[in-house]
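In the laboratory, one determines a bound structure by crystallizing the protein with its ligand and collecting diffraction data. In a computational setting the workflow is compressed into a single prediction: the sequence and the ligand go in, and a structural description comes out. We illustrate the idea with adenosine-5'-diphosphate.
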Amino acid sequence: SLLFLIIVSSFILAVISWHLAGKSIRPVMESWKRQKEFIADASHELRTPLTVIQTNLDAAMCDNSGTIAENRVWLDNAYSETEVMSKLVGELLMLAKIDSNQVTIGNGNVDLTDLCRRTVDKFAENFKMKDISVEMNLEEGIMISGDELKLTQMLSILTDNAIKYSESPGKYSIRLNSEKNKAILKISDEGVGISDEDLHRIFDRFYRADKARHREEGGTGLGLSIAKWIVENHGGKIKVDSTVDIGTTFTVELPIND
Ligand code: ADP
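The predicted complex, in structure-token form:
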């Protein structure tokens, strides 16, 4: 009977350890799969601007009959693709750091009202170029605890998108107010909007609603996934409402300092 007891308990132990091993290996497998997908998507996205740069430089070098002005067009195209690529590499680095838990969120005292105003100022030239009027409605002195640089990055991503996905003339509005213990920020545009089927995917990495067109705008499909990470790592929430051809509103809620 001792032998029987040993066999039964080793069987039970084997079942338990098999179950635990399965549980602990699953997240590792999933994260490994996500990493593989991330590298595949990133390489694909990097190849596109590289190809554009190569073909334009090829054309500039091979076209002996072209005038300097004609060659300049090829070089301009190549140059603007290096800008797309540099933005992409910056975003990829940020996401890689996020995935390996290397990004820390500062917890300084941040004047959110001031950050909103500074973001709008920073984009003044872009608003002007696209003939977009700006409406600002900011409650004064809304203070939150967080990382000024990252919150600025989030505001820039939302503002940059509002401009990119607007036709001229357009309208941009930024509203900030406090309710109980949270700050409520709304950034709206009267641009192209997002269809219902795209709406639930726009915070996914590499997702672009209208692939071809939105790539032409310099879109990488990474901005919103970074913005969402920043908001959530400040204990907040981000959501979007949008209607095609009417416009889009992003709402960000962040906890306020007591
Ligand atoms: P991208 O670099 O392509 O703009 P994002 O992650 O910031 O990447 O946005 C993902 C996609 O969501 C965009 O490609 C675009 O299709 C859509 N989108 C984001 N913001 C807006 C907006 N304000 N109006 C319309 N579409 C938007």
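The pocket of adenosine-5'-diphosphate is lined by residues 157, 161-162, 165, 189, 191-194, 202, 207-210, 214, 219-225, 248 (CB under 6 Å). Keep in mind that any predicted model is a hypothesis to be tested, not a measurement.
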